[in-house]
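Protocol step 4 of 6: record predicted structures for both targets in the notebook before any analysis. Target 1:
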Amino acid sequence: MTMPETSPSLQPQRPVPEQLKWLTIPLLVELISNAIALLLLPFTQEQLVSRVQATLTEMGMTDIQLTPQLLQSTLWTTFFMLMALTLLLYYVREGVKAGKGWAWVMTLLVAVFSLFNVPFGPIISLALFYGAFRPEVRAYFGR
């Protein structure tokens, strides 16, 4: 006699720990800040040109001129990188809420890279590290 298969919806769900907010809220803050940066990117062209020119002057490369093609490719590259990072943060946050093991690891990676995002990144990183290593949260992810 075979055992009847249970569908995934009939299996008991793990209770979501209260400390999971230490992961979901900082990830939401990162997600919103990246989305705002993405929306403001078209308005940063003049600032980008001035910063790149200042950097080139500091490096002693005064003979290099910024062409419109170079500036446009820089802006598009930045746009696609911010878009990819924003999408990644969205899927990591959804994975955290669902208790996926890969999302716990990705949260740690986001926390490490947020350390370099001054001034608020280190605060977000500390919250993510604190939340990720809480015993209840680790048990929720099966760690």
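Target 2:
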Amino acid sequence: MNNITHLSKMFESNIRLQIIASLYQGDLSYKKLKEICHCTDGNMATHLNKLIQNQFILKHKVIYNDKPLTTYHLTNFGKDEFQKYVAVLQKAIEPVTEEENTNHDQ
């Protein structure tokens, strides 16, 4: 079985995992991420800041229709780390082949 303990600590939080998975599909606004994650402003800010500090996401602020709009973007590093995480999970749930079973029994 695969050991997932070497993966980034960013995936230990369900909220951060949801943010990363959501941004994997494309850029999203703060409002939309908050809606997806069902959390408070304080909780959301904490998780977003942690992801920014660890270079998983970038924050963009612009003025749109005379109002501030904050959007978030998954970095290439964030995408790579998420893909590694998904690959390890997929490997962990793959059925063990008979040959692998034989090798482990020896």
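Step 5 preliminary note on target 2. The beta strands are 28-29, 57-64, 67-74. The chain has a mean pLDDT of 87.
Proceed to step 6 after PI sign-off.
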